[in-house]
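User: Fold this; tokens only.

Assistant: Input:
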Amino acid sequence: MTGARPSAAQRRSTTRRETRERWAEEISARAEAYWTAERIHGQLGDKDLMLPPNEAAPLLRALGLIKADASMSPSGVRKYMQINHMVKLLESVFVALARRAPVVRVLDAGCGSSHLTLLLAWCFEHRWRRSARILGVDRNAQIIERCRERAEMALLDDLLRYEASTIDELDLPAVWADAFDEKSPEPLVHALVALHACDTATDDALALAIDVGAELIAAAPCCQAELARRWAELDNADASGPFEPIWGAPHLRREVAATMTDALRTLLLRGCGYAVTPMEFVPSTHTPKNTLLRAVRVGGSAPEHFERYVVLREALGGADIALARSISADHRRALEEAERRCASPQGPYFSVATKVPDQGSGGGVSA
């Protein structure tokens, strides 16, 4: 008795897969011929390359970093060096996760054009040789469709799934179950990454990571405008405070607010039980948005970091950032306890009042 004949849809899927495999073999052969040791040395230098172009050609072509003949443009070389640096920064923590978990589950919150999800999938499949499931989420449905095409092109669609959604509206358990046919795994995700999620979308991603107990968080914030807007309001209200000279200077306001926002996020993450390392993500010659917050969960809360958050917040003008409003109720109660301790004369730190004529302090702890 013979088995059932494959359906038309199954035959088309098989044909597409075979076509992509032939394409991958062809671009790999061209890359191996093009990227000799001499050419790699001449164009890419002597640095330890995490993704050698003669080995990762299907991925690099899917990302648009190499051309059809396997060569790279000057802009492609710059981007290629950035992604190698990115993998180097994250490799040790992902390999450590893979040693503990049979299947590493990763969420890319605000995945954009999916460079990082594809990179991670390639590394899990070809460099680290570990099992993984990776979900990319972005609010732009057209971008998500393009991400799916790239995943197929790079032969990584077995590991990758994509969903169109905002981060704050994402029903992660339902989406994960639908994408991978896996209901309520524990933990739901091991790692959450968020590269250049705009403004408070980074806070939404961090809050989600804390809520699901992600062991690893890697976030490269972008367009941190929330605190700068608050400072502009304080300047318009003729407020006074330690940062008053910066509030009225738009350029300084934007630059300093971005750094201080990341400092506040760092303190909140530490308060929520994470060991956080802010670091340079890519050289500033490539992009000014080059800060990476790498956080590893160490367990428990650390109230002293909530206290430091309160003190810095008050010096900056008294307004919470979005992450402080988005953390879980338990962490929020710990933050409120820290506020009460800071307001007490016996508190471990002093607080700094921001004075706004005829309008009160604008919220927060008063001196």
